[in-house]
């Protein structure tokens, strides 16, 4: 699971860097429109495809860290055995959902490569296949993350502790 966590962290850092670059692109586009009356060509298409990629790149780490959306109202009022059953059900449903997304998205990703599918017209054409394959890959990885978390939970390991790094404790002064 260590390698999976390292890859999930790398994907998360990649998505954060991507968001930063998108912010710079938006600023440049706005300045170009405002100051020079000339926007950056393809900004809309780049942003449109990037939002999907950035979102899905963050999924695996969200699963491993236990930060996927959940309601604890029911879970907090159950006994330990029933809570485990509910968590196992949730892990399995998450794995099935993202495996289904990966499976359903693969044909369109292959078709996008075969057809050379792109968005945009004129000077800027953005190919869609990289984002489509990112969706397939990160969905499959999220399904694997759910299975890994399920196994860890069944073994009684603390899932969130594997992801969060321990905070350094202050060293007491010697007297």
Summarize the structure.
The chain has 175 residues and is mostly helical. The chain has helices at 2-36, 43-57, 59-64, 72-76, 80-115, 129-154, 159-163, and strands at residues 118-119, 126-127. Helices cover 73% and strands 2% of the residues.
Protein model, in words:
The protein has 175 residues and is mainly α. The protein has one domain. 73% of the residues lie in helices and 2% in strands. The protein has seven helices and two strands; from the N terminus they run αααααββαα. The chain has helices at 2-36, 43-57, 59-64, 72-76, 80-115, 129-154, 159-163, and strands at 118-119, 126-127. It is elongated and about 65 Å long. The chain starts with a helix and ends in a 12-residue tail after the last helix. Residues 161-168 have low confidence and may be disordered.
Fold blueprint:
Blueprint: H1 2-36, H2 43-57, H3 59-64, H4 72-76, H5 80-115, E1 118-119, E2 126-127, H6 129-154, H7 159-163
Antiparallel strand pairs: 1-2
Give descriptors for this structure:
DctQ, two-stranded antiparallel ribbon
User: What's the domain count?
Assistant: 1
Helix content: over 70%
The oligomeric status of these chains comes to single chain
The average pLDDT is 86
- The string of secondary-structure elements, in order, is HHHHHEEHH
Distance between the termini: 43 Å
Rounded to the nearest angstrom, the radius of gyration is: 21 Å
Beta-strand percentage range: under 5%
Number of helices, counting only DSSP H or I runs of 4 residues or more:
7
Based on Cα principal axes, name the global outline.
elongated
Task: Give the structural class.
Answer: mainly alpha
Q: Main sheet, how many strands, which sense, barrel?
A: 2 strands, antiparallel
Largest sheet, spatial ordering of strands: 1-2
Number of strands: 2
Low-confidence stretches: 161-168
Subunit structure: The complex comprises the extracytoplasmic solute receptor protein and the two transmembrane proteins.
Protein name: TRAP transporter small permease protein
InterPro entries: DctQ, TRAP_DctQ
GO molecular function, one term: transmembrane transporter activity
């Amino acid at each position: 699971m260590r390698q999976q966590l390292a890859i999930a962290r790398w994907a998360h850092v990649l998505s954060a860097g991507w968001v930063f670059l998108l912010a710079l692109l938006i600023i440049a586009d706005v300045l170009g429109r405002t100051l020079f009356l000339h926007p950056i060509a393809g900004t809309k298409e780049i942003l449109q495809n990037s939002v999907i990629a950035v979102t899905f790149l963050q999924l695996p780490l969200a699963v491993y860290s236990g930060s996927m959306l959940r309601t604890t109202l029911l879970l907090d009022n159950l006994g330990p055995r029933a809570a485990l059953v509910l968590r196992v059900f949730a892990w399995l449903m998450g794995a099935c959902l993202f495996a289904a997304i990966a499976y359903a998205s693969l044909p369109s990703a292959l078709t996008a490569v075969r057809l050379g599918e792109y968005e945009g017209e004129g000077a800027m054409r953005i190919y869609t296949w990289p984002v489509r394959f990112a969706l397939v890959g990160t969905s499959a990885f999220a399904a694997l993350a759910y299975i890994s978390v399920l196994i860890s939970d069944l073994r009684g390991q603390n899932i969130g502790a594997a992801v969060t790094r321990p905070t350094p404790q202050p060293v007491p002064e010697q007297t």
